[in-house]
User: Fold these one by one.
Assistant:
Number 1:
Amino acid sequence: MLSSPRSLRIVAIQGSARPNNNTAKALALVESQFSQNADIDFSIINPAELTLHVPGFGVSEDARNVQKMVKEADGIILATPEYHGSYSSTIKLVIDNLGFPSALAGKPIALLGVASGSIGAIKALEHLRSVASHVGGIVFPGPISVARVNTVFDEEGRLLDEATGNLVRSVADRLMDYIQRHICPAHTLEQLVRASAI
Ligand SMILES: Cc1cc2nc3c(=O)[nH]c(=O)nc-3n(C[C@H](O)[C@H](O)[C@H](O)COP(=O)(O)O)c2cc1C
Protein backbone atom coordinates (compact mmCIF):
# COMPACT_ATOMS: atom_id res chain seq x y z
CA MET A 1 0.00 0.00 0.00
CA LEU A 2 1.27 3.47 -0.88
CA SER A 3 1.92 5.85 1.97
CA SER A 4 0.44 9.29 1.61
CA PRO A 5 2.85 11.66 -0.22
CA ARG A 6 3.47 14.95 1.54
CA SER A 7 2.13 18.11 -0.03
CA LEU A 8 4.42 20.14 -2.23
CA ARG A 9 5.16 23.40 -0.49
CA ILE A 10 5.19 26.60 -2.51
CA VAL A 11 6.03 29.90 -0.87
CA ALA A 12 5.43 33.28 -2.52
CA ILE A 13 7.20 36.37 -1.30
CA GLN A 14 5.06 39.46 -1.78
CA GLY A 15 7.21 42.45 -2.62
CA SER A 16 4.78 45.18 -1.68
CA ALA A 17 3.52 46.32 1.71
CA ARG A 18 1.35 49.15 0.35
CA PRO A 19 -2.32 49.06 1.39
CA ASN A 20 -4.42 47.45 -1.37
CA ASN A 21 -1.32 46.67 -3.40
CA ASN A 22 -1.44 45.16 -6.89
CA THR A 23 1.25 42.60 -6.16
CA ALA A 24 -1.08 40.97 -3.63
CA LYS A 25 -3.93 41.04 -6.17
CA ALA A 26 -1.74 39.20 -8.69
CA LEU A 27 -0.68 36.68 -6.05
CA ALA A 28 -4.33 36.06 -5.18
CA LEU A 29 -4.79 34.76 -8.74
CA VAL A 30 -1.79 32.47 -8.35
CA GLU A 31 -3.22 31.26 -5.05
CA SER A 32 -6.57 30.43 -6.64
CA GLN A 33 -4.74 28.45 -9.31
CA PHE A 34 -2.80 26.43 -6.73
CA SER A 35 -5.97 25.87 -4.68
CA GLN A 36 -7.26 23.60 -7.44
CA ASN A 37 -4.58 21.07 -6.51
CA ALA A 38 -5.06 19.46 -3.08
CA ASP A 39 -1.43 18.28 -3.10
CA ILE A 40 -0.10 21.81 -2.88
CA ASP A 41 0.45 23.76 0.28
CA PHE A 42 0.71 27.39 -0.84
CA SER A 43 1.57 30.28 1.43
CA ILE A 44 2.31 33.95 0.94
CA ILE A 45 4.87 35.87 2.95
CA ASN A 46 3.38 39.32 3.42
CA PRO A 47 6.01 41.79 4.64
CA ALA A 48 3.28 44.14 5.90
CA GLU A 49 2.60 41.58 8.64
CA LEU A 50 6.23 41.07 9.64
CA THR A 51 8.93 42.73 11.66
CA LEU A 52 12.07 42.57 9.54
CA HIS A 53 15.24 44.52 10.28
CA VAL A 54 17.75 45.98 7.88
CA PRO A 55 21.11 44.18 8.10
CA GLY A 56 23.03 45.19 11.20
CA PHE A 57 19.96 45.53 13.44
CA GLY A 58 19.53 41.92 14.48
CA VAL A 59 17.50 38.96 13.24
CA SER A 60 13.85 39.09 14.25
CA GLU A 61 11.68 36.14 15.21
CA ASP A 62 9.69 36.77 12.01
CA ALA A 63 12.90 36.56 9.97
CA ARG A 64 13.70 33.17 11.51
CA ASN A 65 10.19 31.93 10.71
CA VAL A 66 10.43 33.17 7.12
CA GLN A 67 13.82 31.50 6.70
CA LYS A 68 12.31 28.21 7.91
CA MET A 69 9.36 28.51 5.52
CA VAL A 70 11.66 29.17 2.58
CA LYS A 71 14.08 26.36 3.53
CA GLU A 72 11.20 23.89 3.68
CA ALA A 73 9.67 25.04 0.37
CA ASP A 74 9.86 23.03 -2.84
CA GLY A 75 9.43 26.15 -4.96
CA ILE A 76 9.42 29.90 -4.55
CA ILE A 77 7.63 32.77 -6.28
CA LEU A 78 9.22 36.18 -5.96
CA ALA A 79 6.55 38.77 -6.75
CA THR A 80 7.66 42.37 -7.02
CA PRO A 81 6.25 45.69 -8.12
CA GLU A 82 8.48 47.94 -10.22
CA TYR A 83 9.61 50.91 -8.16
CA HIS A 84 11.88 53.51 -9.75
CA GLY A 85 13.13 51.22 -12.48
CA SER A 86 13.91 48.22 -10.28
CA TYR A 87 12.43 45.71 -7.82
CA SER A 88 11.03 47.06 -4.57
CA SER A 89 13.13 47.71 -1.50
CA THR A 90 10.43 45.69 0.25
CA ILE A 91 11.31 42.45 -1.53
CA LYS A 92 15.02 43.15 -1.06
CA LEU A 93 14.41 43.53 2.67
CA VAL A 94 12.79 40.10 2.77
CA ILE A 95 15.65 38.61 0.73
CA ASP A 96 18.20 40.26 3.03
CA ASN A 97 16.41 38.57 5.95
CA LEU A 98 16.76 35.10 4.42
CA GLY A 99 20.26 34.60 5.78
CA PHE A 100 23.75 34.63 4.35
CA PRO A 101 24.13 32.09 2.77
CA SER A 102 20.54 32.50 1.68
CA ALA A 103 17.63 30.14 2.32
CA LEU A 104 16.87 30.65 -1.39
CA ALA A 105 20.00 28.71 -2.43
CA GLY A 106 19.08 25.73 -4.60
CA LYS A 107 15.38 26.64 -4.75
CA PRO A 108 13.44 26.72 -8.02
CA ILE A 109 12.29 30.33 -8.35
CA ALA A 110 9.61 31.84 -10.59
CA LEU A 111 9.48 35.61 -11.00
CA LEU A 112 6.38 37.78 -11.26
CA GLY A 113 6.40 41.55 -11.64
CA VAL A 114 3.73 44.25 -11.83
CA ALA A 115 4.04 47.84 -12.97
CA SER A 116 1.76 50.72 -13.86
CA GLY A 117 3.85 51.57 -16.91
CA SER A 118 3.27 50.26 -20.44
CA ILE A 119 6.59 48.39 -20.65
CA GLY A 120 5.75 46.40 -17.55
CA ALA A 121 8.13 45.32 -14.80
CA ILE A 122 10.96 44.35 -17.15
CA LYS A 123 13.68 46.23 -15.30
CA ALA A 124 12.48 45.06 -11.90
CA LEU A 125 12.51 41.45 -13.11
CA GLU A 126 15.94 41.70 -14.71
CA HIS A 127 17.42 43.06 -11.52
CA LEU A 128 15.57 40.55 -9.37
CA ARG A 129 16.75 37.67 -11.56
CA SER A 130 20.32 38.79 -11.00
CA VAL A 131 19.88 38.82 -7.22
CA ALA A 132 17.97 35.53 -7.10
CA SER A 133 20.66 33.81 -9.21
CA HIS A 134 23.42 35.38 -7.14
CA VAL A 135 22.07 33.82 -3.94
CA GLY A 136 21.97 30.40 -5.61
CA GLY A 137 18.36 30.12 -6.73
CA ILE A 138 17.41 28.19 -9.87
CA VAL A 139 15.61 31.00 -11.64
CA PHE A 140 13.21 30.07 -14.42
CA PRO A 141 13.43 31.72 -17.82
CA GLY A 142 10.40 33.71 -18.94
CA PRO A 143 9.47 35.85 -15.94
CA ILE A 144 5.88 37.10 -16.00
CA SER A 145 5.58 40.87 -16.34
CA VAL A 146 2.26 42.65 -15.92
CA ALA A 147 2.07 46.07 -17.59
CA ARG A 148 -0.55 48.75 -16.85
CA VAL A 149 -1.47 46.84 -13.73
CA ASN A 150 -3.93 49.53 -12.65
CA THR A 151 -6.14 48.49 -15.58
CA VAL A 152 -5.87 44.78 -14.79
CA PHE A 153 -7.51 44.89 -11.34
CA ASP A 154 -10.10 47.18 -9.84
CA GLU A 155 -9.88 48.65 -6.33
CA GLU A 156 -11.44 45.55 -4.81
CA GLY A 157 -8.98 43.26 -6.59
CA ARG A 158 -11.46 42.00 -9.18
CA LEU A 159 -9.84 40.93 -12.45
CA LEU A 160 -10.68 43.23 -15.38
CA ASP A 161 -8.44 41.64 -18.02
CA GLU A 162 -8.84 37.89 -18.40
CA ALA A 163 -5.88 37.45 -20.78
CA THR A 164 -3.48 39.04 -18.32
CA GLY A 165 -5.12 37.04 -15.55
CA ASN A 166 -4.29 33.84 -17.42
CA LEU A 167 -0.71 34.99 -17.85
CA VAL A 168 -0.41 35.53 -14.10
CA ARG A 169 -2.02 32.17 -13.34
CA SER A 170 0.52 30.49 -15.63
CA VAL A 171 3.18 31.18 -13.00
CA ALA A 172 1.58 28.47 -10.86
CA ASP A 173 1.38 25.94 -13.69
CA ARG A 174 4.93 26.48 -14.88
CA LEU A 175 6.37 26.21 -11.40
CA MET A 176 4.47 23.00 -10.70
CA ASP A 177 5.45 21.53 -14.03
CA TYR A 178 9.13 22.17 -13.37
CA ILE A 179 9.04 20.85 -9.81
CA GLN A 180 7.18 17.70 -10.79
CA ARG A 181 9.44 16.93 -13.73
CA HIS A 182 12.80 17.79 -12.22
CA ILE A 183 12.57 18.08 -8.44
CA CYS A 184 10.00 15.53 -7.32
CA PRO A 185 9.71 12.90 -10.05
CA ALA A 186 8.97 10.23 -7.43
CA HIS A 187 6.08 12.30 -6.07
CA THR A 188 4.72 12.72 -9.59
CA LEU A 189 5.06 9.02 -10.33
CA GLU A 190 3.13 8.17 -7.18
CA GLN A 191 0.34 10.58 -8.16
CA LEU A 192 0.15 8.95 -11.58
CA VAL A 193 -0.06 5.49 -10.02
CA ARG A 194 -2.82 6.66 -7.70
CA ALA A 195 -4.73 8.30 -10.55
CA SER A 196 -4.53 5.18 -12.69
CA ALA A 197 -5.71 3.04 -9.74
CA ILE A 198 -8.99 5.00 -9.41
C1 LIG B 1 7.88 54.25 -5.04
C2 LIG B 1 7.22 53.90 -6.33
C3 LIG B 1 7.96 53.87 -7.50
C4 LIG B 1 7.37 53.49 -8.71
N1 LIG B 1 8.13 53.39 -9.83
C5 LIG B 1 7.60 52.89 -10.97
C6 LIG B 1 8.40 52.64 -12.13
O1 LIG B 1 9.59 52.85 -12.14
N2 LIG B 1 7.78 52.11 -13.22
C7 LIG B 1 6.45 51.83 -13.25
O2 LIG B 1 5.94 51.35 -14.29
N3 LIG B 1 5.67 52.05 -12.17
C8 LIG B 1 6.21 52.56 -11.04
N4 LIG B 1 5.43 52.75 -9.93
C9 LIG B 1 4.03 52.38 -10.00
C10 LIG B 1 3.86 50.96 -9.53
O3 LIG B 1 4.43 50.02 -10.43
C11 LIG B 1 2.39 50.65 -9.33
O4 LIG B 1 1.88 51.56 -8.37
C12 LIG B 1 2.17 49.24 -8.87
O5 LIG B 1 0.79 49.10 -8.59
C13 LIG B 1 2.97 49.04 -7.62
O6 LIG B 1 2.74 47.78 -7.13
P1 LIG B 1 2.02 47.59 -5.72
O7 LIG B 1 0.64 48.15 -5.90
O8 LIG B 1 2.04 46.11 -5.60
O9 LIG B 1 2.83 48.30 -4.67
C14 LIG B 1 6.00 53.16 -8.73
C15 LIG B 1 5.25 53.20 -7.55
C16 LIG B 1 5.85 53.55 -6.36
C17 LIG B 1 5.03 53.54 -5.09
Number 2:
Amino acid sequence: MASASSNRSERVLAAVPTEADQDVYRALAANAAKGVGVVTARQGRWDVAVTITDHLSISYDPPTMLVSLYALSRIAEAVTQADRWALSLLPDSLRPTADWLGEQGSPLVGLLGQVPHFRRDADGPALIDGALAWFELRTTAVHEAATHVLVVGEVVAMGSAAEPGAEPLVRFRSEYR
Ligand SMILES: Cc1cc2nc3c(=O)[nH]c(=O)nc-3n(C[C@H](O)[C@H](O)[C@H](O)COP(=O)(O)O)c2cc1C
Protein backbone atom coordinates (compact mmCIF):
# COMPACT_ATOMS: atom_id res chain seq x y z
CA MET A 1 0.00 0.00 0.00
CA ALA A 2 1.35 3.43 -0.90
CA SER A 3 1.91 5.53 2.20
CA ALA A 4 1.16 9.22 2.44
CA SER A 5 4.29 10.78 3.83
CA SER A 6 4.89 14.42 4.62
CA ASN A 7 8.60 13.92 5.26
CA ARG A 8 9.49 13.27 1.64
CA SER A 9 10.83 15.85 -0.74
CA GLU A 10 11.75 15.72 -4.39
CA ARG A 11 13.29 18.16 -6.80
CA VAL A 12 13.86 17.68 -10.52
CA LEU A 13 16.78 19.80 -11.67
CA ALA A 14 16.58 22.33 -14.46
CA ALA A 15 18.37 21.41 -17.71
CA VAL A 16 21.02 23.85 -16.58
CA PRO A 17 20.92 23.55 -12.76
CA THR A 18 20.04 26.84 -11.09
CA GLU A 19 21.72 28.28 -7.99
CA ALA A 20 18.72 27.09 -5.98
CA ASP A 21 19.24 23.55 -7.38
CA GLN A 22 22.87 23.75 -6.32
CA ASP A 23 21.93 24.88 -2.80
CA VAL A 24 19.49 21.98 -2.38
CA TYR A 25 22.10 19.59 -3.79
CA ARG A 26 24.72 20.81 -1.32
CA ALA A 27 22.36 20.46 1.61
CA LEU A 28 21.36 16.91 0.59
CA ALA A 29 24.96 15.85 -0.20
CA ALA A 30 26.07 17.13 3.23
CA ASN A 31 24.14 14.18 4.72
CA ALA A 32 27.03 11.88 3.85
CA ALA A 33 29.11 11.51 7.04
CA LYS A 34 32.74 11.64 5.97
CA GLY A 35 36.12 11.16 7.53
CA VAL A 36 38.23 14.30 7.37
CA GLY A 37 41.71 14.12 5.86
CA VAL A 38 44.58 16.32 4.77
CA VAL A 39 46.17 16.08 1.33
CA THR A 40 49.79 17.22 1.10
CA ALA A 41 52.27 17.66 -1.72
CA ARG A 42 55.58 19.45 -2.20
CA GLN A 43 55.64 22.25 -4.75
CA GLY A 44 59.28 23.16 -5.21
CA ARG A 45 60.49 23.94 -1.69
CA TRP A 46 56.98 24.63 -0.36
CA ASP A 47 54.43 22.34 1.25
CA VAL A 48 50.88 22.62 -0.04
CA ALA A 49 48.27 21.09 2.28
CA VAL A 50 44.46 21.24 2.40
CA THR A 51 41.64 19.68 4.35
CA ILE A 52 39.45 17.35 2.33
CA THR A 53 36.52 15.03 2.84
CA ASP A 54 36.20 13.71 -0.70
CA HIS A 55 38.53 10.74 -0.72
CA LEU A 56 37.89 7.10 -1.49
CA SER A 57 39.63 3.78 -1.07
CA ILE A 58 39.16 2.18 -4.49
CA SER A 59 41.01 -1.13 -4.44
CA TYR A 60 43.20 -3.40 -2.32
CA ASP A 61 44.97 -4.99 -5.32
CA PRO A 62 46.98 -2.93 -5.82
CA PRO A 63 46.14 -0.52 -2.96
CA THR A 64 44.60 2.44 -4.79
CA MET A 65 42.87 5.63 -3.61
CA LEU A 66 41.18 8.64 -5.16
CA VAL A 67 40.82 12.26 -4.07
CA SER A 68 38.53 14.90 -5.56
CA LEU A 69 40.20 18.33 -5.75
CA TYR A 70 38.90 21.65 -7.01
CA ALA A 71 40.56 21.91 -10.42
CA LEU A 72 41.75 25.52 -10.04
CA SER A 73 43.26 25.03 -6.57
CA ARG A 74 46.91 25.11 -5.61
CA ILE A 75 46.64 21.60 -4.23
CA ALA A 76 45.31 20.19 -7.53
CA GLU A 77 48.28 21.76 -9.30
CA ALA A 78 50.74 20.53 -6.67
CA VAL A 79 49.34 16.98 -6.54
CA THR A 80 49.19 16.53 -10.32
CA GLN A 81 52.75 17.85 -10.74
CA ALA A 82 54.41 16.03 -7.84
CA ASP A 83 55.68 12.49 -8.24
CA ARG A 84 54.37 11.69 -4.73
CA TRP A 85 51.62 13.12 -2.53
CA ALA A 86 49.94 12.02 0.67
CA LEU A 87 46.60 11.64 2.42
CA SER A 88 46.49 11.71 6.24
CA LEU A 89 43.22 10.78 8.00
CA LEU A 90 42.68 13.05 11.01
CA PRO A 91 41.71 12.16 14.58
CA ASP A 92 39.15 14.39 16.32
CA SER A 93 41.93 16.03 18.36
CA LEU A 94 43.21 17.68 15.13
CA ARG A 95 40.11 19.74 14.45
CA PRO A 96 42.17 22.97 14.66
CA THR A 97 44.40 21.57 11.89
CA ALA A 98 41.31 20.81 9.76
CA ASP A 99 40.09 24.39 10.35
CA TRP A 100 43.47 25.92 9.49
CA LEU A 101 44.05 23.89 6.34
CA GLY A 102 40.42 24.24 5.24
CA GLU A 103 40.62 28.04 5.05
CA GLN A 104 40.92 29.58 1.64
CA GLY A 105 43.99 31.60 0.81
CA SER A 106 46.19 30.42 3.67
CA PRO A 107 49.82 31.44 3.10
CA LEU A 108 52.30 28.94 1.68
CA VAL A 109 55.04 30.29 3.92
CA GLY A 110 54.59 28.82 7.38
CA LEU A 111 51.55 26.79 6.33
CA LEU A 112 52.66 23.78 8.37
CA GLY A 113 54.54 25.83 10.99
CA GLN A 114 51.94 25.06 13.67
CA VAL A 115 51.00 21.62 12.33
CA PRO A 116 53.09 18.75 13.77
CA HIS A 117 54.20 16.63 10.84
CA PHE A 118 56.97 14.31 9.67
CA ARG A 119 58.34 12.94 6.40
CA ARG A 120 59.65 9.58 5.28
CA ASP A 121 62.48 11.33 3.48
CA ALA A 122 63.64 14.88 2.91
CA ASP A 123 61.83 15.34 -0.43
CA GLY A 124 58.65 13.53 0.57
CA PRO A 125 55.21 15.02 1.23
CA ALA A 126 54.37 16.00 4.81
CA LEU A 127 52.54 13.37 6.87
CA ILE A 128 50.41 14.65 9.74
CA ASP A 129 51.48 13.60 13.25
CA GLY A 130 48.60 11.88 15.02
CA ALA A 131 46.99 10.67 11.75
CA LEU A 132 44.80 7.59 12.20
CA ALA A 133 46.31 6.44 8.92
CA TRP A 134 48.54 8.00 6.31
CA PHE A 135 49.13 6.99 2.70
CA GLU A 136 51.85 8.15 0.36
CA LEU A 137 50.70 7.87 -3.26
CA ARG A 138 51.90 8.08 -6.83
CA THR A 139 49.39 9.37 -9.37
CA THR A 140 48.18 6.79 -11.91
CA ALA A 141 45.27 8.71 -13.50
CA VAL A 142 43.64 12.14 -13.46
CA HIS A 143 40.02 12.51 -14.56
CA GLU A 144 38.28 15.85 -15.06
CA ALA A 145 34.79 15.94 -13.55
CA ALA A 146 32.73 19.16 -13.52
CA THR A 147 34.69 21.73 -11.45
CA HIS A 148 37.03 19.10 -9.96
CA VAL A 149 39.79 16.68 -10.87
CA LEU A 150 39.66 13.12 -9.59
CA VAL A 151 43.22 12.10 -8.86
CA VAL A 152 43.80 8.34 -8.63
CA GLY A 153 46.93 7.20 -6.85
CA GLU A 154 48.68 3.93 -6.12
CA VAL A 155 49.86 3.59 -2.52
CA VAL A 156 53.66 3.45 -2.26
CA ALA A 157 53.89 3.57 1.55
CA MET A 158 51.41 3.72 4.41
CA GLY A 159 51.19 3.71 8.16
CA SER A 160 49.62 5.15 11.26
CA ALA A 161 50.73 7.87 13.67
CA ALA A 162 47.71 7.71 15.96
CA GLU A 163 47.66 8.14 19.73
CA PRO A 164 46.13 5.12 21.51
CA GLY A 165 42.33 5.36 21.57
CA ALA A 166 42.19 8.10 18.94
CA GLU A 167 38.76 8.68 17.36
CA PRO A 168 38.12 9.93 13.81
CA LEU A 169 37.24 13.51 12.91
CA VAL A 170 33.94 13.28 11.01
CA ARG A 171 32.14 15.91 8.94
CA PHE A 172 28.33 15.72 8.76
CA ARG A 173 25.88 18.42 7.64
CA SER A 174 28.68 20.99 7.37
CA GLU A 175 29.81 20.45 10.97
CA TYR A 176 32.55 18.44 12.63
CA ARG A 177 31.34 15.57 14.79
C1 LIG B 1 35.60 20.12 5.91
C2 LIG B 1 36.20 20.53 4.60
C3 LIG B 1 36.26 19.61 3.56
C4 LIG B 1 36.82 19.97 2.32
N1 LIG B 1 36.88 19.03 1.33
C5 LIG B 1 37.46 19.36 0.15
C6 LIG B 1 37.62 18.37 -0.88
O1 LIG B 1 37.24 17.21 -0.73
N2 LIG B 1 38.20 18.76 -2.04
C7 LIG B 1 38.63 20.05 -2.26
O2 LIG B 1 39.14 20.34 -3.34
N3 LIG B 1 38.51 20.99 -1.28
C8 LIG B 1 37.94 20.67 -0.10
N4 LIG B 1 37.83 21.61 0.88
C9 LIG B 1 38.28 22.98 0.61
C10 LIG B 1 39.75 23.14 0.79
O3 LIG B 1 40.19 22.73 2.07
C11 LIG B 1 40.02 24.64 0.59
O4 LIG B 1 39.53 25.02 -0.66
C12 LIG B 1 41.46 24.94 0.59
O5 LIG B 1 41.98 24.78 1.88
C13 LIG B 1 41.71 26.38 0.15
O6 LIG B 1 42.80 26.35 -0.67
P1 LIG B 1 43.21 27.62 -1.57
O7 LIG B 1 43.73 28.65 -0.63
O8 LIG B 1 44.28 27.03 -2.47
O9 LIG B 1 41.99 28.04 -2.31
C14 LIG B 1 37.29 21.28 2.12
C15 LIG B 1 37.24 22.21 3.18
C16 LIG B 1 36.72 21.85 4.40
C17 LIG B 1 36.68 22.84 5.53
